[in-house]
Amino acid sequence: MRAVVYREPGPSSVLQVVDRDLPEPGPGEVRVRLVRAGVNPTDWKFRAGMMRGFEEVTPGHDGAGYVDAVGPGVDGLRVGDRVWLVLGQHGVAHGTAAEHTVQPASHVVPLPDNADFDLGASLGVPAVTAHRALTASEAGPDRLGPGALDGRTVLVAGGAGAVGNAAIQLARWAGATVVATVSSEEKAALATAAGAHHTVDYRAADVVEAVRSIAPEGVDIAVEVAPAQNIGIDLEVVKVHGLVSIYANNGGDEMTMPLRAAFGKNLRFQFLILYTLDDALVRAAVEDVTAAVAAGALRVGEDAGLPLHHYPLDQTAAAHDAVEQGAVGKVLIDLE
């Protein structure tokens, strides 16, 4: 099989396409013949040096394709099943930038019949992250579904990004009023296509004033991508007993905030990353995300606010570069 590998951390030029023997699934494992692989910021960050300890690494957490072989002790999955993957490179050397991947059965999820492989490969990191961001409140739902967020308002920072797009769609499916912050008219159009009821261009408007005009009592949840820059806004617009869910460090690695403002509102802060997330929370997210896909509530493409950018396997380096340089939309690797 063909696979993309790197043997030392560094720029995208360390990636190369090689031929490798077809891996065999062991007990509790499934081999998937991949049709699409998703590329996320974590992939290039790991490649650049955040992940070590293996002689050879195949990057990629997300992907979709067909079950190709099933190891002993696996129930509920059969050869030929259409599936999507979650945490495909977590703790292991070989992820999804390959024609085949062997995964624990718990990382292999049936793909609803109405979903194509572009969508399947776009779910993993973005959708599971968005799910946790929306369900981390002590006073809120621990699962998502129609009506789970009725009467609530969600603010999504960076509504044109992949996680932001998934957060908008999931929150809308769950019944929330969704406000998204964006940096341009073009990105406002994408957030609106994803389902945002309101958009605020943070370069052209006072965000606090604009959000307060939409939600005078404040928002229930802020899904935050740039806390170093936005924490002051979050403290102003999140209501008493609200939630600030922080999933990235865009715009700075350190955050400073006035503590009394957070004390005074009894705010909850949830810092989240999938790789240390409790298995039960990952399973809950996978179940709800799959239900949203089956309901047609999670989509990809220009008309869903998430343009797709396709690269062949031998251009995986260019795909990594596109993500690192802030490509708007979802970057996918075509394997078939």
How do the strands and helices of this protein lay out in sequence?
Elements (H helix, E strand, L loop, with lengths): L1 E4 L10 E4 L9 E11 L1 H10 L11 E9 L11 E4 L14 E5 L3 E3 L6 H4 L3 H12 L17 E5 L4 H12 L3 E6 L2 H10 L3 E4 L5 H8 L4 E6 L2 H11 E9 L12 H7 L2 E4 L7 H16 L13 E5 L3 H9 L5 E5 L2
Parallel strand pairs: 8-9, 8-11, 9-10, 11-12, 12-13, 14-15
Antiparallel strand pairs: 1-2, 3-4, 3-6, 3-15, 4-5, 5-7
Would you mind describing this structure in some detail?
The chain is of the alpha/beta class and 336 residues long. It folds into two domains: 2-122 and 306-334, Alpha-Beta Complex (Quinone Oxidoreductase, Chain A, domain 1), CATH 3.90.180; 133-274, Medium-chain alcohol dehydrogenases, catalytic domain (Quinone Oxidoreductase, Chain A, domain 1, Alpha-Beta Complex), CATH 3.90.180. 29% of the residues lie in helices and 25% in strands. Strand 12, helix 8 and strand 13 (268-271) form a beta-alpha-beta unit. Helix 1 (41-50) packs across helix 10 (316-324), helix 3 (124-135) crosses helix 4 and helix 3 crosses helix 9. The model has no long low-confidence stretch (mean pLDDT 95).
